[in-house]
Amino acid sequence: xxxVILAVLGLIFxxxxxxxxxxxxxxxxxxxxxxxxxxxRKQQLSITKGRSMCAxxxxxxxxxxxxPLVSWLWLKGRCRxxxxxIDDSPLTEIVMASLFVISYVLWPLSLSGGYAVAxxxxxxxxxxxxxxxxxxxxxxxxxDKLVLPLTIVAVAYVLTLVYLSGVVSTLIAPVIGAVxxxxxxxxxxxxxxxxxxxxxxxxxxxxxxxLAGGPLEACLLLFLASLLGTILSLPQxxxxxxxxxxxxxxxxxxxxxxxxxxxxxxxxxxxLLYR
Length: 275
Fold this sequence. Notes:
- By secondary structure, the protein is mostly helical.
- The mean pLDDT is about 90.
- Helix 8 packs across helix 9 (about 215-240).
- The protein is built from 10 helices and no strands.
């Protein structure tokens, strides 16, 4: 039953993530613009006040159009009103549902008492992480409006675990992890003048270091993200005629690695240290 509940919640939050990412991108396009039409558009795109709409025709969507995954399948991936292809893929919803269930299965801590709060914070990280990954894949950008909440959640998650452990010194390890990843990314950004790594990655790095949990886990996160980036980008690299100027977003690989290390990092670290 728990799996079903988490899967359904994942589908719902996956749908929310897709809509929010699109709204944030459209809002960014209006920055600096003024006028009555712009004000009306901003109101329409508001995450808290705006109504769901088709990205093409702007028609307000009915409740039957908003059932996660089911509506997309029923409508065969096209808007009910203008019949154009829906930009948002149900893949985001499926991935989110899968990550919710996997988080429950692999959760390394207890799920009772205060640790249930930690698990909920972890799921919030998953939601924000998927949003950031989708945004970066589509527009090669990690917006501050998502990076800042992710950082707040990471801090809250670590402080919750420290409070539950009752040992303040347990805060040292995740802070060192944050310094390692954050410091390395900042050095790369400054040294390459933004050519090797983006500013969004630098801003997001400390939060990922905190979620990794410690210095060894932070190093494992960097290794895994680089490995995933190399493997998954290889087909594009070959297809692109071996051009070294291809734009490959690193954010999604960092977030995937953080998800894996956050759940399995301690086990992997123990295996490497005590095998």
